[in-house]
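In the previous chapter we treated chains in isolation. Here, by contrast, the input contains two separate entities that must be folded as one system, with a combined length of 226 residues.
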Amino acid sequence: GNSVTQMEGPVTLSEEAFLTINCTYTATGYPSLFWYVQYPGEGLQLLLKATKADDKGSNKGFEATYRKETTSFHLEKGSVQVSDSAVYFCALSPYGNNRLAFGKGNQVVVIP
Amino acid sequence: DTGVSQDPRHKITKRGQNVTFRCDPISEHNRLYWYRQTLGQGPEFLTYFQNEAQLEKSRLLSDRFSAERPKGSFSTLEIQRTEQGDSAMYLCASSFQQNSNEQFFGPGTRLTVL
């Protein structure tokens, strides 16, 4: 089936540190891949997406590259800010299918 | 248009009662989705509509759950004979058919079943 696996546990880091959140997926065919972010008290927001292999999605300093050979879509940011504190979800949409399959999410806490 | 809206934002009910939630999608979006999110988990797909037609239902959607979108605009999700296991955040999302992979989410309705 289609599934997304995110690294376990919350991520706590200092302001201006480098952030990586791992995401791997299992899917048939060629899914589209997404990162969604949920800020405290707010709804899910699309952060970035990639629709085919080797595509790089980017937004607000965040980047993720669709790696078909490793079935991964890791999220990175070079210098985090306190305002980046949120829960980050990796998700996929199988080709020709409308449902999104989400990972469990990672709480990111950035300390000043 | 300010995005996808959901009502109510919070609902507390006793086991065995029926509850109904409403979702108003972004006006030009013809696809509407329902998801359920429990604590510490990602959202799980429940069902989706294209206009007024319900095109897909998850196995998570038991017989006690029913969703409608009668005029192809707002949608309702009803849970009959609620159980404690139904306690969760119910999320609605909408998308435009031509770009259906990009879904826009509402703030959710948090249901607590006592």
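The interface with chain B takes residues 4, 32, 34, 36, 42-46, 49, 51, 89, 91, 93, 98-105 of chain A (CB under 8 Å). Chain A has a mean pLDDT of 93. Compare these points with the single-chain example from earlier in the chapter.
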